[in-house]
Write a structure and sequence with these properties.
The protein is of the alpha+beta class. Helix content is about 15%, strand content about 35%.
Length: about 250
């Protein structure tokens, strides 16, 4: 009887947890920049109801020496089994901006800064939903703070974004070519509406652009599958079995 009550209690606790965490998938990209520096990037896609949150992180541990190691763009493909794309609206982008210094600690400029690029030469992060998925990097959607003219029609509007300002860095800046720049520290959180009938299973590919041209593109792979109810059920079963074993030994 105690075990039954224990199971009911766990299900009561886990049911709201599935709604709390939603449906997510993580893409990791590990490689080297055009200058041969090791880099590591991550994008986490979280679907909750009609809202999609995408957290893009620079997780590199090797010292950033050049613009080539900065994360300037991220491309992604979301498409359901009917080959239909979502209509993503209400775009938001938030991150902490810093003024870099090669001679001392960087200086926080704006915590939780609005990084949405809309006006000419705002140089923040532009969202586009009209890329040609048959061309490199093979996605319909993307966000970027650089022009990426090397990707042709799959680049961003050079009248709105352009230089390396507002790219994502990590660690400390020690070189002249990255000194006195406004950059975003560690991560940016992007938000969209319009995914009511979509899930983490519909995220088909992710690519990360380094530098401004981009200098290189690294494709991500799924690192953490979305949590499922079956996985939670397995955890409940394991806990109950363990509890029964302990009780049988008394």
């Amino acid at each position: 009887m105690k075990n039954s009550a224990f199971i009911v209690m766990l299900f009561a606790l886990l049911a709201p947890a599935t709604n709390l965490f939603g449906d997510l998938v993580v893409y990791d990209a590990i490689g080297t920049s055009a200058k041969g520096v090791d880099v590591h990037f991550r994008s986490t896609f979280s679907f909750v109801g009609n809202h999609l949150t995408v957290t893009v992180e620079n997780l590199s541990t090797e010292a950033i020496m050049n613009p080539d190691e900065l994360l300037g763009s991220m491309y992604f493909e979301i498409k359901n089994s009917a080959d239909a794309y979502p209509v993503l609206t209400n775009y938001t982008a938030v991150g902490d901006t810093y003024l870099t210094s090669k001679n001392g600690p960087e200086v926080l400029q704006t915590p939780n800064a609005n990084l949405v690029a809309t006006a000419a030469r705002s140089d923040k992060w532009q969202f586009k939903d009209s890329f040609n998925p048959s061309l490199n990097p093979f996605t319909r959607f993307g966000v970027g703070t650089v022009g990426n003219s090397g990707l042709g029609s799959n680049g961003f509007n050079g009248q709105i974004v352009g230089g390396i300002d507002y790219a994502i860095y990590t660690g400390n800046i020690t070189t002249n070519n990255l000194n006195n720049k406004i950059l975003v520290k560690d991560k940016i959180t992007f938000g969209f509406d319009g995914v009511t009938s979509y899930s983490a299973d519909d995220v088909q590919s992710v690519a990360f652009g380094l530098g401004t041209a981009p200098d290189s593109v690294i494709f991500g792979v799924v690192a953490v599958p979305e949590p499922t109810f079956a996985g939670l059920l397995f955890a409940v079963s394991a806990l109950c079995i363990s509890r029964r074993k302990r009780n049988s030994k008394r």
